[in-house]
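Tutorial, part two.
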Amino acid sequence: MSDDAPLASLRSLLFAPGNEERKLRGALESDADAVIADLEDAVPAAQKDRAREVVREAFGQGRPLRILRIAAPADVELA
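Running the prediction step on this input gives:
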């Protein structure tokens, strides 16, 4: 898979809650084509800030493709 491959060509997408470092790192070590860190409803409101830190530290560069699932800008939890 090339770096510019469209999302439609991905065979496997693995979601992991952004606040659970062990699960996120496990997902990144898997054979999935892409890992999606969920920062939205998988993370309790009280843990959102910590989840952002965990994802920032874990994502870095390299394989697999890394994607963030975030709340809509109008979401009051972001205020």
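The mean pLDDT is 84. In part three we will examine how such features are distributed along the chain.
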